[in-house]
Design a protein that fits this description.
It is a single chain. With 165 residues, the protein is an alpha+beta fold. It has one domain. The strands form three sheets. Strands 1, 4, 5, 6 and 10 form a five-stranded antiparallel sheet that branches.
């Protein structure tokens, strides 16, 4: 296995392209609990170009009924990214000073469960919630300041690299 760079430009371009639309290659989960993590996974895939086909604990989408929990579930995506030793994107939790475009933010609106996964598309010179801009589905947005969300808890997932064969 080898490590390659995560293509942040491709990830951000994809996020802007599909922020207010739905790529017909993927099911729209808006009516099944939300589409935010599905969209975040699509963005990650645009920047990594590789899925992890490992049953149950991988990160992949082939169809509505053939996908990993990590593709569409907030907690599952977090766990996949921070624990991934196989192929696919790898992430670490960081403080906001280390985020970059193409990274993922996860929000908890009740302080107990993380339930939203916007993608960072822009970061100001000194990152703060007011100059970190995100794209997201479910509550469709592009270039939305992170500070406009009413969250209780937040975590930042910085993509460090992509494992590939």
């Amino acid at each position: 296995m080898r490590k390659i760079s995560y293509n942040r430009d491709s990830a951000v371009s994809y996020a802007h392209r599909w922020a207010y639309g739905r790529n017909p290659k993927y099911y729209n989960f808006d009516r099944l609990g939300g589409d935010c993590t599905n969209f975040a996974s699509q963005v990650l895939y645009a920047g990594s170009e590789v899925m992890n086909p490992k049953p149950t604990f991988g990160w992949y989408y082939y169809s509505l009924n053939n996908r990993a929990p990590a593709w569409t579930g907030v907690e599952f995506l977090h766990n996949f990214l921070v624990k991934n030793q196989g192929i696919g994107p790898v992430g670490v939790e960081v403080n906001l000073s280390l985020v970059e475009p193409g990274d993922i933010v996860q929000l908890s609106f009740d302080g107990m469960v993380f339930s939203h996964s916007p993608t960072i598309v822009s970061v100001g010179g000194s990152p703060s919630p007011s100059n970190i801009l995100v794209a997201a589905h479910t509550f469709d947005a592009d270039n939305r300041p992170l500070s406009t969300y009413q969250y209780v808890s937040i975590r930042y997932l910085h993509i460090t690299h992509v494992n590939t064969w």
